[in-house]
Each structure stands twice: as C-alpha cells, then as structure tokens.
C-alpha cells in the first residue's frame, strides 16, 4: 500500500463501553490492529467497567441515522458490523440503513453483557428476528442469544448444527454459532446451510474475556472489507480473537478485557 492509498473502511454500529473492553471501543481497537480504517455510529452510551453496567442511555433514532448517513454518504464503507442496538426502534432503523448499503454486514445480536446486564429490550427481539437477521451477511450469536432468538438450548457441541439451522431460518446468509460458553475447547460452527466449517481453539483459562464477541465480529468485518470470503474472514478472525483472549489482562476488580493489541505488542520491545 502506498502512502496515498486509503486502507479498507469498516463501520461499527454499536454501544459505547466506557471501560474500553467491549462495544465501539473494542471494535475500533480491533480495526486498528487489523489495519483498516474504523468508523463508528454510536447507538447508546453505557457507564460500564470490569464489574458490570452501571447505566445505559440510548441515542435518538435521528442521531443514529445522521451518524450513519454522514459516514456512508461521504467516506463509504466496505463492511458494516452491528452490536448493541438497545431498542426495537433502533434495530429497525439500523436494519433499514444496512439494507440500503452496498456492503457486507456482520450482525452480532448482542442481548446481555457478560455480567448479565440487558443491552437489548425484550420487546426488540422480534425486530432482530424479522428485520435485522434477514439483512445480515453473517450473524454471530452466542449461546444465550441463540436461546433467546430461537428457543434452541445448546448443551454440547453436538447441538450447534440444530442451533445454526434455527438461526438461518430467519434469513442471514451465514451464521456463526459461538460455542464459547460450553466447557472444553472453544468450538464455533459456521454454515450457510450448505457449506460447514467447525472452528476449534484451545480454551484459555483466563477470566479476562470482556469483549470477546465484539472483537470477533469486528475482525470478521475487517476480513470481509478486504474482500475475503466469509469462511476465510471467520477463520482469520477466530485466530485473532483466540490470541486476544490468551493475552486478556486484569483491570479493575472484575472481568478484564481481551487484549486487542496482542498482535501489535508481540514485536514491541
Ligand atoms: N476461554 C476461552 N478460550 C478460548 N476461546 C474462547 C473462550 N471464551 C470464548 N472464546 C471464543 O471467543 C469467541 C466469542 O465467543 P463468546 O465468548 O461465546 O461470545 P460473546 O462475547 O458474544 O458471549 C468465540 O470464538 C469463542 O469460541
Ligand atoms: C456496549 C457493549 N456492547 C457489547 C457488550 C457485550 O460484551 P460482553 O459480552 O463481552 O460483555 C457490552 N458489554 N457492552
């Protein structure tokens, strides 16, 4: 890349995490680490740290639309990633914006934080199913989100295929079911209903996993923005998040963040 050539552009549409481990902050750090130009549409502001979410404030739909238009109409995007969308109104507005954008969309249907704090109203679930999932190139639910959205409870890696079929029925092109909350190896299943890829990584016995899902979804968006196929982008993103979890560090008194900069720091003296 010459000095004048711009890097690929990736947009996150998500909530702010004041603690810097998840949400928009995790997304932008991931994008920097993976060499793309990161941009953000903030949907909600959370007061959050290693102990949980102490408060959350949604932005008006008008503010979300305006941020999105500012970015897409002038700068342009090669991939979009969504995270915390908070309400049915915001889910529907974002789904509509994405459907009018010519770029792949990675939808992380964030429901609840690691600490159990709600990041999406229960009344928004139906909009996620019927409006947001149908415009996703890849949806990346964790097991709690799969249960909330489809009623399928995954108890072992054998159930992942059934969960994937239930999510695909809502219309995303691909689904990545994240088995991170199961015991044993960290096994995820990627499928479009025809092709299937099992992604397996050793489980790191590290409690500092704040932001894993946001980091993985952003890394996938970075790969797609570079023109990689979905299986290629997901494979590279899984490697990146596994390294970030291995390097997760303690901050505050609770669950610390994954290290978004692990690959950059490797060569830092
Ligand atoms: N302790 C761990 N060691 C290695 N990989 C993990 C660990 N916990 C989660 N993962 C992986 O991190 C990614 C994010 O998954 P998960 O933590 O389930 O998402 P979420 O943050 O949405 O709950 C997945 O690829 C999952 O397999
Ligand atoms: C603003 C925001 N977005 C997403 C998450 C989910 O991250 P995690 O599942 O690691 O708590 C979060 N805690 N905060």
Automatic annotation (TrEMBL):
The keyword Kinase applies. The keyword Kinase applies. It catalyses: 4-amino-2-methyl-5-(phosphooxymethyl)pyrimidine + ATP = 4-amino-2-methyl-5-(diphosphooxymethyl)pyrimidine + ADP; 4-amino-5-hydroxymethyl-2-methylpyrimidine + ATP = 4-amino-2-methyl-5-(phosphooxymethyl)pyrimidine + ADP + H(+). CDD domains: HMPP_kinase. Keywords: Kinase, Thiamine biosynthesis, Transferase. Residues 17-259 form the Pyridoxamine kinase/Phosphomethylpyrimidine kinase domain. It comes from the Bacteria. Signal peptide: none annotated. Its EC number is 2.7.1.49, 2.7.4.7. Catalyzes the phosphorylation of hydroxymethylpyrimidine phosphate (HMP-P) to HMP-PP, and of HMP to HMP-P. This is Bifunctional hydroxymethylpyrimidine kinase/phosphomethylpyrimidine kinase. It comes from Streptomyces tricolor.
């Amino acid at each position: 890349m010459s000095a004048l050539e711009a890097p690929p552009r990736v947009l996150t549409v998500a909530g702010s995490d004041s603690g810097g481990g998840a949400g928009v902050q995790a997304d932008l750090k991931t994008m920097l680490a993976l060499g793309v130009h990161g941009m953000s549409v903030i949907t909600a502001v959370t007061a959050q740290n290693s102990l949980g979410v102490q408060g959350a404030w949604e932005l008006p739909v008008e503010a979300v639309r305006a941020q999105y238009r500012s970015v897409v109409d002038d700068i342009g995007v090669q991939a979009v990633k969504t995270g915390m969308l908070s309400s049915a109104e915001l889910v529907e507005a974002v789904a509509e914006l994405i459907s009018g954008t010519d770029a792949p969309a990675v939808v992380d249907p964030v429901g609840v934080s690691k600490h159990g704090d709600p990041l999406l109203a229960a009344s928004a679930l139906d909009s996620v199913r019927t409006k947001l999932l149908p415009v996703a190139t890849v949806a990346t639910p964790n097991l709690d989100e799969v249960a909330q959205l489809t009623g399928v409870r995954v108890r072992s890696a054998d159930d992942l295929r059934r969960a994937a079929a239930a999510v695909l029925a809502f219309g995303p092109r691909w689904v990545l079911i994240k088995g991170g909350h199961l015991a044993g190896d960290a096994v995820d299943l990627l499928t479009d209903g025809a092709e299937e890829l099992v992604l397996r990584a050793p489980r790191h016995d590290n409690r500092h996993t704040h932001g894993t899902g946001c980091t993985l979804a952003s890394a996938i968006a970075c790969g797609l923005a570079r023109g990689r196929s979905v299986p290629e982008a997901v494979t590279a993103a899984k490697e990146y998040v596994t390294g970030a979890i291995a390097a997760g560090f303690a901050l505050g008194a609770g669950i610390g963040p994954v290290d978004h900069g692990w690959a950059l720091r490797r060569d830092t003296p």
